[in-house]
Amino acid sequence: MNFRIPRGTVDLMPGEVEKWQYIEEKARDLCRRYHFSEIRTPIFEQTELFQRGVGETTDIVEKEMYTFTDRGGRSLTLRPEGTAGVVRSFVEKKIFGEPQPTKWFYIGPMYRYERPQAGRQRQFHQFGIEVFGTTDPALDAELIDLGWQFYRSVGLEGVKVDLNSVGCPECRPVHRTRLIEYLTPHKEALCKDCLSRLDRNPMRILDCKNESCQRVTEHAPRMVDHLCENCRPHFESVKESLDLLGVDYRLNTRLVRGLDYYTQTAFEFILEGQGGQAGSVGGGGRYNGLVEEIGGPEMPAIGFGLGLERVMLALESQKVELPLSKEVDCFLVTLGEEAKKCSITLLKELRQAGCSAERDYLDRKMKGQLKAADRAHARFVAILGENELKENRIVVKEMATGEQEAIQLNKLVEYVRQVRKG
Ligand SMILES: [Zn+2]
Ligand SMILES: [Zn+2]
């Protein structure tokens, strides 16, 4: 039997994993500076949570979920996105009763049964943010800036922000009616999907990639022109804050959200892909109705989710060299049994002092050990032979320069530690 990795998944091998650790570290560091706390929710939840939280009529829930029945007969689903679980936790733990806002972030794997392609896997990873308990537009802008900073901090260039307001249950119906009035005479020009959207969810037609549909909607009534007296100043204020923050954003009135609980600010991060096509690498927005939908009180919220596979692809296509160090600080080369025995405690002392240290475990000769040190990207090789041992000394050689000197054996740890710090 030849076992194979499941379709749409990858092994992140040593060499690749370090890049992931690097971008995750960038995300964590940003979140620390913006005063967000990490939350880790389970990878599976009750299926109904996603039906409610993601929306029964979405592609995700209709076609893409990994749903299974456990031994207790419960229907569970591998999380297809991060928000529903985080909101469930916020409600279940009654965090809404504490002083607000609540500022959380998460990084982890998500699961969708999709046709695998470059940057799209069945197990994929997202970095996401959720904030509860405030409608302050300055926070919308700050969140967008955080996401924008994240792409820049890993070294990506040319990330733009598409911005829109999708209104609220107050003003959306007015726009919806105007939109249906406008689109109905052009019915014939709409694609099949949009035809069925016309009654159910006409806003989604603005989002259709079909050329004929796009021509029809080019001059369709825009949500931003129908914002109510709450939503209009909110949107203006978000834009003003983004200007202050220097975020490169543009108004995209085609940017919509399919579900009712999305309100006001909607945004996407757009990146030029290979061949000049621009694509969304992440997005988010306000969802002032979701906490209530999941069984909590009325509570404003906003968040985003960024696909990390897309980030890795973009790093590759932009040929960004991440500053990764594969270096081991010190490789101990020993000659003779006594020296080998001595290396056991030396290694431990080096490691306890915070240095990375390695040795040979295959009884290689001197030449073989030096080769192994090279393979391990050793910064220093410390050579301990019988003569050195007798004189309580050890030869330290810097691999990059070839410079070497003999130092006192009990000074080795301090020597490596000092150079490591400098
Ligand atoms: Zn409104
Ligand atoms: Zn269409």
Automatic annotation (TrEMBL):
Residues 1-323 form the Aminoacyl-transfer RNA synthetases class-II family profile domain. It is an enzyme of class 6 (ligase). It catalyses: tRNA(His) + L-histidine + ATP = L-histidyl-tRNA(His) + AMP + diphosphate + H(+). It comes from the Bacteria. Pfam families: HGTP_anticodon, tRNA-synt_His. It is found in: Cytoplasm. The keyword DNA-binding does not apply. Its EC number is 6.1.1.21. Keywords: Aminoacyl-tRNA synthetase, ATP-binding, Cytoplasm, Ligase, Nucleotide-binding, Protein biosynthesis. Homodimer. Belongs to the class-II aminoacyl-tRNA synthetase family. This is Histidine--tRNA ligase. It comes from Salinithrix halophila.
